[in-house]
Amino acid sequence: MKHSTVVAPRLPARRVPAAKPRGAASSPEVSEADALLMSVVRDLLYVEDRTSDLPLRQLHVCTTLYAGPLSMSQLSRKLGVSLSAMTQIADRLEAAGMVARQASEPDRRVRCLVLTPRGRRALQTREKVRHERLAAAFTTLDVPARKQLLAGLRLFQQACATIAE
User: Fold this and answer.
1) 146: Cβ–Cβ under 8 A, 6 or more apart, which residues?
2) Given strand 111-115, what is the order of strands in its sheet?
3) Residues 6+ apart with CB under 8 A from 52
4) Quick check: 139 pLDDT over 70?
5) CA-based nearest residue to 36, from 126, 55, 28
6) 3-state class of 43 per DSSP?
7) What are the φ/ψ torsions at residue 29 (nearest 5 degrees)?
8) What is the tens place of the pLDDT at every residue in 55-71?
């Protein structure tokens, strides 16, 4: 049997990255932070309920509507999706009984999405379970460790907000 030689395509030369700023996170630090964050999300925040079957975009729409009704155009801008994609998401959520369309008070021609009682209960249940799990985890820490954890989370939230700007 004859073996053929496979020649890998030639890749363009890699640019040498600029030197990291002092104190920049190394790849192992980033990998560890990623693994830790994903573990926390899985262990504490994943709730098996009506909302767990929703695709992420649909869940994001529901959590955004938790604060109150929004027009389709407001939602599409806020979530960074096209109006046609927003319409499809709304259709699916409406079929699932999670949201309803209603006319806007100032302009009856504008249609808003609002959480249904079923949708609101599902999100409240999700929030309650999430808080209970976080409270249980907090009770395993002493007071100084809790303060240290909260301080670290505040710093990390500020860092995330900085890069989002």
Assistant:
1) 138
2) 70-71, 111-115, 99-103
3) 46
4) yes
5) 28
6) helix
7) -65, -45
8) 888 889 999 999 999 99
Taking the C-alpha atoms of residue 31 and residue 24, their distance in angstroms, rounded to an integer, is 14
**Distance (Å, whole) CA 86 – CA 61:** 9
Residue with tokens 């030689």: 5
DSSP for 122-161, written as a single string: HHHHHHHHHHHHHHHHHHTS-HHHHHHHHHHHHHHHHHHH
Provide the token pair at 113. Answer: 């999405």
Interval 140-165: pLDDT, tens: 999 999 999 999 999 999 998 888 77
- In this model, does residue 13 exceed pLDDT 50? no
What is the token pair recorded at 138?
């907090």
Query: In Å, how far from its chain's centre is CA 112?
Result: 22
* pTM of the predicted protein model: 0.65
Per DSSP, the three-state class of 82 is: coil
